[in-house]
Specification:
433 residues; alpha/beta; 5-stranded mixed β-sheet; two-stranded antiparallel sheet; 7 strands; 56% helix
Length: 433
């Protein structure tokens, strides 16, 4: 019994010593791991401190030498700085930017308050001239952002931002100069041009529609299907006798009725209140009469808006119902409406982002349309040349503009509008004899 008691005590002692040894080993391992982690954290802090010091040194070198950049993957800008700015001929400026060199720098100066950016410690801001050139190249050619990115040595996101920023800047800064209601002298000048060049008297502008092809929108895509079946954004424009735009309403789905757009536009309110005629009404056929606008057959007849007498080519009875003065009136108004057709064709030819399918978002397209109309007026006002080849390219490449269904006599027609249209019939009949 005594031996068993001694053996039991010995076993208990050995067990205790083994457990204590294991606990000591575990504690030693824990302390070792903690020490290793402490050293790692210390080393990371040391490296971070060195990195911050290195970045401060780089920033200091940039301030002292502005040409030094902290990255080495920036594409070369030699093409822009050397070729465009020093070697481009007048014809090159016209081909690539759709305007003369003088107009280009005039535009840059006008947009500088909105487009100028400050240099930072790690990035040099793009000059205003380069930002404008990137955006104009896109508007004029409608080529991919990737191609323009490579050409100008900037990122694709930068190209997109340049286009967006410039379009917004043009609308904000230049609308009051190049896209505004006409004054009395401009109304008289436009009326003279319609009479002398187009043979239509007492008229100051023509209203027309423009469809701009777009990619499929994420919402309500069917609303953007126009009468020709393709997706578009619909714009309403008023064109003066000089072929320049006085009023533009953009951003409507391609399936919208043009008459609805007109009735809800500021142009309708202005014209209906006599805002497109001088305070002292001009005389026409011996009577004081407001100046009129000319519109397509899809618009309602108003005392201030003339359109053709309705004709249906498939029914001879309709032709027979028109008198010779009415047919003559239709021929004259169709001839005069060419001013809006030619202006829109020149617009799409100069800025081909409007003639080809535009892959920008619907939040950008309306502003882009307005910006292109303003740029059109600016180039026309500055006398910049227009190349016939641009127009040929558009005619061959783009889908034909949809034609809208003619609007027959409705409640929207004014009661005295037919009397005004008869005055014009009488005028053309007298001058045709």
């Amino acid at each position: 019994m005594e031996e068993e008691e001694q053996l039991r005590s010995f076993m208990f002692l050995m067990t205790y010593m083994l457990l204590k040894r294991r606990r000591d080993i575990n504690n030693a391992n824990t302390q070792r791991r903690n020490e290793i982690q402490r050293r790692i954290r210390h080393r990371q802090y040391f490296f971070q401190r060195q990195r911050r010091m290195l970045m401060m040194m780089i920033a200091g070198s940039i301030r002292s030498n502005i040409r030094t950049r902290p990255w080495t993957t920036t594409p070369s800008t030699d093409w822009w700085e050397r070729v465009v700015m020093t070697e481009f001929q007048p014809s090159d400026w016209l081909d690539k930017f759709r305007m003369s060199r003088e107009t280009f720098f005039y535009l840059c100066d006008k947009l500088r308050p909105r487009l100028a950016r400050q240099d930072t410690s790690f990035r040099l801001a793009l000059p205003v001239e380069k930002r404008v050139a990137v955006a104009l190249w896109r508007l004029a050619s409608n080529i991919e952002y990737r191609t323009i990115s490579t050409l100008f040595g900037v990122g694709k996101s930068t190209v997109c931002r340049c286009v967006r920023d410039m379009c917004h800047a043009i609308v904000a800064l230049l609308s009051s100069i190049y896209l505004r209601p006409p004054n009395e002298q401009e109304l008289e000048d436009s009326a003279q041009l319609f009479l002398s060049h187009l043979g239509f008297p007492h008229c100051v502008a023509a209203i027309a529609t423009l469809h701009t092809a777009i990619i499929t929108p994420s919402n309500n895509a069917s609303d953007y299907a126009n009468p020709a079946g393709w997706l578009s954004v619909l714009s309403q424009v008023a064109v003066s006798g000089r072929g320049q735009f006085w009023d533009v309403c953009a951003s409507f789905p391609g399936g919208t009725d043009p008459a609805d757009i007109l009735q809800n536009s500021s142009l309708w309110a202005t014209a209906a209140e006599g805002g497109l005629s001088p305070a002292l009404l001009p005389i026409f056929v011996g009577k004081p009469l407001r100046y009129v606008l000319l519109g397509e057959a899809c618009y309602p007849l108003q005392t201030w808006l003339m359109k053709t007498y309705p004709e249906e080519k498939g029914r001879r009875a309709s032709h027979a119902a028109l008198t010779e003065p009415q047919r003559l009136f239709n021929r004259q108004i169709t001839r005069a409406l060419r001013v809006s057709e030619e202006a829109l064709l020149r617009l799409r030819a100069r800025w081909q982002c409007l003639s080809k399918r535009n892959d920008c978002g619907l939040d950008v397209v309306p502003t882009m349309i307005l910006a292109c109309c303003i740029l059109h007026n600016m180039c026309e006002s500055h006398g910049d040349a227009f190349k016939a080849g641009w127009q040929v390219e558009v005619v061959e490449a783009e889908s034909p503009q949809p034609s809208h269904k003619q609007l027959l006599s409705t409640s929207m027609d004014q009661s005295h509008a037919e009397e005004v249209r008869q005055l014009f019939c009488d005028y053309f009949q007298q001058h045709n004899n």
